[in-house]
């Protein structure tokens, strides 16, 4: 498979370099193309799954000068980043520690006998930023039209697209027209895709990126649903991760939530840290109600997750979120919890 992929990329390489990469470097600087390489496990696997995201952010950004790089350079770049040491250690997560790659790893662990490959809808994104503008995308379609050819080489049994609604037309552009049917349980967040081309494999699209799934509280439900779809589509049993109940107390409120067993200690540690923060704020601001202290704890943790610094919780309105709106939102949430509990 890798030799066929190399032949495919080499066929279009010079045309791509001249008419995409160097086409308009001032106004539309493009990244290098996302070139795939599969493991021996994938090639020998009885069933195969393709995860297809949107685009690779400034892919190959370290190869800026000179322009004499070749397809093997980026196939090896892909192999080192995505596949890691999968051949010798199948407990290695693909990519990096992020919601996007962890979502794939969550599912991969359930079907160790399955072969996986990571693909993108957009083969060439922006050089210094996320996304892909229409100039680069249209030029890629014309001068580096490899997506469908890659699919014929890789022959996955099912494709899981992880792409926002704005990318639906780009899926059509690279893969062909299709009909989409919302899932009964998750609605428009998960749709079944049936391509007009009968040779296309089964496909589904998740319309939220995994980071947003986490914020919406849908991450585990989506992972379980996708696992069930894969199991049903390729005739395998899913190995859902064991979950335990994590109990956390923050101030006067106690919480219990089912979490993956390997994450239980992490949840507990976060709870303990937030509990200390609750009593630290109570001591620093004795005039505050419990509701406002909870809001301060939640807000400061959200800011921390965003990588921002907060030196005075009372000045939080100058940061990314609006303090008053956030306090009111948490206050209403706490009131609802008390109402339903009573």
Q: How many whole angstroms does the radius of gyration measure?
A: 23 Å
H and E order: HHEHHEHHEHEEEHHEEHHH
Q: How many extended strands?
A: 8
Looking at the structure, what is the overall shape?
globular
> What summary fits the major beta sheet?
6 strands, mixed
Describe the strand arrangement of the main beta sheet, using strand numbers.
2-1-3-6-5-4
Distance between the termini: 62 Å
- Report the β-strand fraction as a percent range: 15-25%
Describe the protein in words.
The chain is α/β, with parallel strands linked by helices and 342 residues long. The protein is built from twelve helices and eight strands. The protein has helices spanning 2-21, 40-44, 71-83, 99-108, 134-143, 147-154, 168-175, 210-216, 219-234, 264-284, 290-305, 323-341; strands at 48-53, 115-120, 158-162, 178-183, 187-195, 202-206, 243-250, 253-260. The protein has a six-stranded mixed sheet with strand order 2-1-3-6-5-4. Strands 7-8 form a two-stranded antiparallel ribbon. Helix 4 (99-108) packs across helix 9. It starts with a helix and ends with a helix. The relative contact order is 0.10. The model is unreliable at 317-321 and 338-342 (pLDDT under 50).
